[in-house]
Design goal:
The complex is a heterodimer of chains A (195) and B (322). Chain A is globular and about 55 Å long. Chain A has nine helices and no strands. Chain A has 195 residues and is an all-alpha fold. The longest helix of chain A has 30 residues. Chain B contains nine helices and 13 strands. In chain B, strand 8 and strand 9 form a beta hairpin. The N terminus of chain B is likely disordered. In chain B, the strands form two sheets. In chain B, strands 1, 4, 5, 8, 9, 10, 12 and 13 form an eight-stranded mixed beta sheet that branches. Chain B is of the alpha+beta class. Chain B has a single domain, classed as Alpha-Beta Complex (Sulfite Oxidase, Chain A, domain 2), CATH 3.90.420.10. The longest helix of chain B has 21 residues. The chains are: A mainly alpha (195), B alpha+beta (322). Chains A and B meet through helix 2 and helix 4 of A and helix 3 of B.
């Protein structure tokens, strides 16, 4: 990744979205009998994966000593936001058909959707403050705000867990990965405290 | 009494599109036949026969007044988007994993409070009855729907044949539970074997059928071969597949989804836009095949079959008995 550069990582992260378009036109594959559900599922999964990859940067850095990984973290985080936004827009436009009454009802009365929306709002806050300029302006408060990524990750997994009908295998896998990524940080923090 | 042979239009190519078109042409012919020549087909001289090979055409299928005029979903949609957790929990899992499943030979056990009980070969079980085209709407509890051209037998006729006693208040069904043939059974996705049931009134309603075919052909494995229940005014999970047992019971039978998540899935499971699933709305549904940019359509009470079934629930609080 170090020698490959940001444009290549950018394209790699964009690939799932390009495949959705390709499959929609039946060029690269198929979306299947329920295309709206398939697109929602794919964007949602990639949002979660990008969050996990973003959270994996620090632990990976500590283990491997590859500090250059940090250079890619903002892009990875913004792709998490991108996929979450696409997931939300798909729901808003293709699934709900921009029917305001149904949308408001779902946002307020379906807990798993409220949780997902909260995660999106936090992602918007992080995305809009992701620039160098914003980081300078906010100073210490920037770091406090961007610690919200942990809350976002937990809300995202919770949203998925409460959405699935019966088979919790996939949310469970994300939960396990998240537990490792957060657990590692806690463990290192404890060790630093002891020293 | 001469058997009336329905000649099918000659197949030009063995392609799906052609067989769908042939089926639809034949259905229109049969519909006319059922109206004008109904008396000829009225006698049960036609014995139901389901050939023992995949996608074989089903002979001697009558039309039915209960079929909808709506266009059926494509064969591909109906046979590649399924919930059949015995073959995996993904929508494409049953299509992918049920290819090696052999639905024949097959036997069905009939027991409980009835004069005729026993274990019957599939061929003998269906022989006394007539095959009918039933094009029904199917509404899944997940809020999507299809129009499916089943071929089946009236369950009312089957129940009558086995002569249930006055103690029989319900009809219960059970699915095959064979780990060696069904990979999904290795996981406890549901409380196996899959079980479902209906009240006697629901079982003998004219709409209720045991389906043995699809699109004029033998029922594919992923759709519940060789025989499954279809109750079009209820959510699709009531349509138990791969039936190996039919019991006449006094007590309300087990319903697998109800056992696994009782707050979300009830015994009655009538399609009802006014009673939401705890986690999502049931007011609208996505019609499969309507395209990427089609909006969801409003869900109809009893899936639009109120005329035939509403009277069954006149005194039942459907919010309480979901």
């Amino acid at each position: 990744m170090r020698f490959v550069g940001k444009p290549a990582v950018f394209l790699l992260c964009l690939l799932p979205a390009l495949l959705v378009i390709g499959d929609a036109f039946e060029v690269t594959g198929r979306l299947g009998a329920n295309p709206v559900e398939e697109i929602l599922d794919r964007f949602g999964n990639w949002a979660l994966r990008m969050i996990m990859v973003t959270l994996a940067v620090t632990p990976l850095r500590r283990i491997t000593g590859w500090n250059w990984l940090v250079r890619f973290r903002r892009m990875l985080g913004l792709f998490a936001f991108f996929y979450a936004l696409m997931h939300f827009l798909t729901w808003l436009i293709l699934d709900q058909g921009l029917l305001l009454s149904a949308i408001l009802e779902d946002l307020v009365e379906r807990p798993f959707i409220t949780i997902g929306f909260a995660a999106l709002l936090l992602l918007i806050a992080l995305a809009t403050t992701s620039t160098n300029g914003m980081r300078r302006r906010l100073g210490l408060r920037w770091q406090i705000l961007h610690n919200a990524v942990y809350v976002i990750a937990i809300l995202g997994v919770w949203h998925y867990w409460w959405q699935v009908k019966k088979d919790i295998t996939e949310p469970l896998i994300y939960a396990a990965i998240l537990a490792v990524l957060l657990g590692a940080r806690l463990w290192w923090r404890r060790r630093r405290g002891q020293n | 009494m001469p058997a009336v042979l329905i000649k099918k239009p000659a197949d030009i190519r063995p392609s799906e599109i052609t067989s769908e078109r042939n089926y639809l042409n034949r259905r229109d012919f049969l519909r006319v036949g059922a109206v004008t020549g109904g008396s000829i087909l009225a006698s049960s001289a036609l014995a139901a026969v389901v050939p023992d090979s995949r996608r074989a055409k089903l002979p001697d299928v009558r039309g039915s007044e209960f079929s909808t005029d709506e266009a059926p979903n494509s064969y591909e949609d109906v046979t590649t988007y399924n919930n059949y957790y015995e073959f995996g929990t993904g929508k494409s899992d049953p299509f992918e994993n049920a290819q090696d499943f052999e639905p024949r030979p097959w036997s069905i056990t009939v027991d409980g409070h009835a004069e005729k009980t026993g274990t019957f070969d599939f061929e003998d079980f269906i022989k006394p009855f007539d095959l009918e085209d039933r094009i029904y709407r199917m509404r899944c509890v997940e809020a999507w729907s299809m129009v499916i051209p089943w071929v089946g037998i009236s369950l009312a006729e089957i129940v009558k044949h086995f002569k249930p006693t006055s103690k029989a208040k319900y009809v219960a069904f059970e699915t095959v539970n064979d780990r060696s043939r069904m990979p999904g059974l290795r996981r406890r996705s549901l409380d196996w074997p899959y079980r479902e049931g209906l009240t006697m009134a629901e079982a003998t309603n004219p709409l209720t059928i045991l389906a043995v075919g699809l699109y004029g052909e033998v029922l594919p494995n992923q759709n519940g071969a060789p025989i499954r229940l279809v109750v079009p005014w209820k959510y699709g999970f009531k349509g138990i597949k791969g039936i190996v047992r039919m019991s006449f019971t006094e007590q309300q039978p087990d319903s697998s989804w109800n056992l696994s998540q009782p707050r979300e899935y009830g015994f009655y499971a009538n399609v009802n836009p006014n009673v939401d699933h705890p986690r999502w709305s049931q007011a609208r549904e996505r019609r499969i095949g309507s395209g990427l940019f089609a909006s969801k359509q409003p869900t109809l009470m009893f899936n639009g079959y109120g005329e035939q079934v509403a009277h069954l629930y006149k005194n039942l609080d459907l919010r309480r008995y979901y």
